[in-house]
Structure formats: structure tokens, C-alpha cells
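Data card: per-record layout.
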Amino acid sequence: MQLSRDALKRAYRQMRTIRDFEERLHAEIMTGEIAGFTHLYAGQEAVAVGVCEHLDRGDKIISTHRGHGHCIAKGCDVKAMMKEIYGRRSGLCKGKGGSMHIADVDVGMLGANGIVGAGAPIAVGAALAAKLDRIGKVSIAFSGDGACNQGTTFEAMNLAVVTKAPVIFVYENNHYSEHTGVDYSVGTSQDIASRAEAFGMKVWRGDGCDFFAVYDVMREALEYVRGGGGPAAVEFDTERFYGHFEGDPQRYRGKGEIERIRETRDALKNFRRKVADAKLLDAKELDAIDKEVAALIDEAVTEARAADRPTAADVLTDVYINY
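The structure for this 323-residue chain is written out next.
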């Protein structure tokens, strides 16, 4: 499917925003100003953007502990996200969630989740709500290769098939569950999608480092699910450029592995090369986007540092959600 120039620019801007957001966090965390664990999404940008470019505010997603990319791709405010990670009162969750618990229900982002595999049941619930409301919306459960071993995920997939819930389980296989290689930890290590297939749902597979591959696969999967076919699953083979968490020494990596994947499997490099070869966009246009995004991230950090922290009086607010 041929995307318009504006759509291509938007997709690149989204991926560049995720990359710069994460690269800047990698640097800022070293200052000691940001508390708590942080898990960076850099390297997997094509998946988040390729999936979410098909969605609108009414469609729901549920994320993982590695959730910044999903948040940005779904439309969360970048400056409010930065404030949240810095623990500021004007953050997206008023400084109470931090990196692993960013959420914005208004844009259909139901939250990141620090518990591996915990998002899948939530996504099924959201899908069932959409089905009952007959509004034609879907939900997406983002998961890593580690989550495919969790009982919550199995139960969610089974329930989705039984109820024909309009949900898609998106597995981002970056080859490591924390520090353990997928070949060791997953019985079907070369084909995680087949686990979903065993429950009776239709599955797709794609290159998670190629925006165009992700976009095309998701178009097919969404047409199937929105058309009443029931749930589906997609496995994207991708890479993460940093460790499981910030500070991870990554001794489980092979010699030269990170350098190799940064050179050969970088989603942004792949995108730039493809649009240039096809004469869809030129380097000047993409460079201009790079500059705009760099300025946005600089502003986000500056404003986050200057923002107020929560007060003692804020401790007892937002304990329960009001409907």
C-alpha cells in the first residue's frame, strides 16, 4: 500500500521522536535526576509506529515495562511523558507512575505495565467492551518474547478465541527475556506466533525493523479482526539497542552484536534508505524533521527539570479512578 508523503513524514517523525526520547533518557539517567528503573525502547520503533499508525483514539493499546515507544506512537504528549518520568506533578500521571506506568486513557493508551504478561488480559477486556458497544474498535496487547511464557497470556488468548474478541496480540521478539536468550527460554523459539495459532487464532509474522513490513502486516491483521474474524496474533522479529534496563552490563550479548544490529537493523536507517531509493522523500526533508524533534526533546527535558514535584497533599489523591 502506497503511503502519501505526509503519512511517510508522520511515520518518520514518530520513529525519530521515540529514538531521540530514549537516547536522551539514556544520557539523563546518568545524571541521577531520574529515579527508578527505566527500560528503553530504542531499536523497536518500527513496531510501535507501524502498528499505531492504523489506530485512532477509540482503539486501545496496553503496553509493557518497555512502553515509551508505544505511548508516543499512540499519541501521548511527549513533554508530559518526560515530566512523568522525572516525577513531576504536571506529568501525564501527575508524577506518580514514572517510566513503567505511563497511561493516557483519553488517547486510548491504557497503560504500561511492570508485570510481564499482565497486559494481555486487560487488552481482551477492552476488546470485549468494544465488541459489546458495537463500535468497531480493536485493542492491541503489546508483549515481548518473555510474556509468551506467562499463564496470563495463555488464558487471555484462549478467552479471546472463545469470545471472538477483537484483539491483536503483538509479540515483539527482541531475542532476550531480560538476560535470557529466546533460544533457551522459549520452546518454540523460532516461531512464537505458533503458540497463538495453537489456540485457534490466525497469525502473521513480519520484520520488526522495517516500518513498511510492520505497516503492511498490521493492515491485513486489522482488516481481519475489524471484519469480525476474531482475535489474531502477530510476531515481529526486532532488536533492542540497550540492555533490559538502564545499567544492565549486557554480558549475555555476543561480541560486536550491538554494533552489528545498529548498523544492519536500525529501523530509521532502513526507512531513510527505502524512501530515498524510491524517491518518495529526500534527505533534506528528513533532516529537517530530525532538527524539529531534537528541539522538542530539548524543550521536554528543560521543562521537566523546572516543573514542580508532587506535594505531601497529593499522596491521597487519584487513589481510585472515578467513572
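Known properties of this structure: The longest helix spans residues 5-29. The mean pLDDT is 94.

See the next section for split statistics.
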